[in-house]
Amino acid sequence: MNVVEMDNLKKKLDEIDIKLLDTLNERAKLVKEMIHHKKLQGLPAFDPVREREMLNHIAKNNQGPFAAETLQHIFKEIYKAGLELGENDNRKALLVSRRKKAEDTIVQVNKDSIGDGKQRLIAGPCSVESYEQTAKVAERLKEHGLTLLRGGAFKPRTSPYDFQGLGLDGLKILKRIADEYQLSVISEIVSPNDIETAEAYVDVIQIGARNMQNFELLKEAGQSRKPILLKRGLAATIEEFMNAAEYIISSGNENIILCERGIRTYERATRNTLDITAVPILKQETHLPVFVDVTHSTGRRDLLQPAAKAAMAVGADGLMAEVHPDPAVALSDQAQQMDLEQFDHFVSILKNFGLHTNKNE
Question: Is the per-residue pLDDT at 361 higher than 70?
């Protein structure tokens, strides 16, 4: 075969490739249309029975030289790519998606603009146990120029015999302290029925990891006028996390702060495994601010500082950490809360790393 004949064969292959490309794109448009109509009818996009019928049809009509198994493998990839087109369209449609809104969402919490490029710290006790205990922590926050106080009043615990929180009395304590020390309060609410009550006492409503897929709670939070801090579930994928936030925003509340708090894996060296890559992924995929809870993700005081530095380095909008005047007698999470001296050291190190406080404005 001479050079001219070889070139002619190459041109024919190029022409066939273009025809294949046009045919694949035409097929993709039909698949997208089918998926759209299936969604309107409440039907799943993937139909395994139909796929098997199509693969059998391919094998039956194959005249070589490819083996039927080879062609079936190729067509399975084509089918898979078609389904992914539908999933990509769904992601584009999400109100939390960066594709839907290119600019960053700034969540206003009193005087703090969360997501404005300044990295902030939310800190406070795991549980509100008394006015005196919480006030000691609030005073230390104030000394450091920090303005965001966390504290648990309603505590969903793994064991029904563990301390469950002070409930409404805990919220009243937080409100009193917030007014006295000019702080903003973040506290978890576990029941849809308590959202309206909580609005009178807190500045940010937290939805914890165990309630990330409590859909009635998410929808009720979506109707609140307060910002929502949504924690990632213990074993939730990033897609599931984003869809949980979608429940809130689609119900009318776009003031959402996402919080990565570690996921459950086989590793036992830490309480959970901090998925540090979730931060840049969520920043790319959504327009919402992203915080990292270094306390629950590690469960170890000795890892709080390096975990916090890592979170700040990958672009987190802020951190959450727990501090208690005397962790040894705390009613919950004694092993992971910092005492006041440890907290002072923690904050001083992070200030040098870029942590924003009112004292470095």
Answer: no
